[in-house]
Amino acid sequence: MFQEISEKFDGIFKRLRGHGKLSEKNISESMREVRRVLLEADVNYKVVKQFIASVEKKAVGQDVLKSITPGQQVIKIIHDELAGLMGEKQEPLTFSNRIPGTIMLVGLQGSGKTTTAGKLATFIQQKGRKPLLVAADVYRPAAVEQLRIVGREIDTMVYSDEGKDVVKICKEAESFAKEHLHDTLIIDTAGRLHVDETMMDELDRLKSELHPEEILFVADGMTGQDAVNTAKVFTEALDFTGVILTKMDGDARGGAALSVRAVTGKPIKFLGVGEKYNQIEVFHPARMASRILGMGDVVSLVEKAQQSIDQEKAAKLEQKMMRDRFTLTDFYEQLQQIKKMGPLQDVLSMLPGNQKALKNMQVDENALVQTEAIINSMTIEERMKPHIINGSRRKRIAYGSGTRVQDVNRLLNQFTMMQKMLKRMKKGRGMSMPFGL
Ligand SMILES: Nc1nc2c(ncn2[C@@H]2O[C@H](COP(=O)(O)OP(=O)(O)O)[C@@H](O)[C@H]2O)c(=O)[nH]1
Ligand SMILES: [Mg+2]
Fold first, then answer.
1. To 10 degrees, the CA torsion angle through 310, 315, 321, 323?
2. Which of 61, 182, 226, 426 could cysteine-pair with 132, CB 3.0–4.6 Å?
3. What is the pLDDT at residue 32?
4. Could you tell me if the CB of 100 is within 6 A of ligand 1?
5. Rounded distance between C-alpha atoms, residue 246 and residue 283, angstroms
6. Rounded distance from Cα 112 to ligand 1 centre (Å)
7. Which of 43-57, 162-176, 415-429 has the lowest mean pLDDT?
8. Domains of the chain by range and CATH?
């Protein structure tokens, strides 16, 4: 996500940090570069103009010029302004006490409404709610069938009744939900290829009859300013409550994410990052700013880890690391936990720092499997005391795991390096996160 824009910012920041002191001229040069990067990322030009003016004012107005780390200060100002552009804080889904609560998904055809309906259902199910998907895209028989398939896949009930008026279908879905104890309706509405009056009228009717707590505008994040323009039309006609940007796993340049809030005044609530139903992310403006600026999304990474890592094991592991008794058994357990976090590439892309290095890095899932096999072939004693693994033991382990002695050597070297790193971290010379993240 946002690889291109991140790399460009990385270049600007390197130059900014390179100056011992900054002059107003340095700053305005950097701002020109920032402006170009944002425009190239397809950010709305009015938004860019405002953004640059605001950063420039803060950068020149503050004590940046006199500071010992002027570059770092300007970067922080850019970061905070970028975050502000996308919203002050994370905006959660709103639910009232009403049962069922109602979420209506609107947007153009192909923007990802039906897929997102499945994702939202999955998301709120994890929060303990019981959703009912409602097929309100009745003009294409295939659309109803698509939602049924989604429902089957995520094990969620779908309400459909072809041939009726959509408002009637949704009203009946409401009664059905009450009767069968579903607390949330997720309504998958019909889209058109372009904004048209019939669609808006229908959505408007649904809105005034159903009083949804949330009307979420679903937009294809890859379409940049087109998405933003459509969002503007939708918010004027329908006054929706929030935005979901989909297909952010593709080569979305960032324009939509950076402009839609400023243009519509409505918060981005989620990002769609893949075709699977768990590939949805809660949108956090500050974290997104860090990610765009190539500083990595450390907080999301930690949260992701917390979701998938067994808390007790993690605590024990931490204790062991701190006591220096980190063994291959722990390393093995840690690998298992990492595997649970999802594809390695996803995990790596959230790490701070050199995006370029990551791009060129071959993330080899097979290497994980190999490492597992090697550790599996070790005795418990060997795992606890890797230093006893001599030449003949290495041969035996390689043979047992179907690998080569070189592979065993490499693993042991990696492990030693990791142990050293942990020792360093313990002494407090370890990683530092940007801006206290
Ligand atoms: N890569 C990717 N594809 C998505 C995402 N969301 C939706 N899609 C795909 O976009 C296409 C259109 O989605 P669909 O939900 O049918 O759109 P709808 O017409 O608005 O209901 C489908 O092929 C989806 O698999 C996403 O976040 N990432
Ligand atoms: Mg659909």
1. -150
2. 182
3. 94
4. no
5. 12
6. 4
7. 415-429
8. 3-85 (1.20.120.140), 101-293 (3.40.50.300), 301-436 (1.10.260.30)
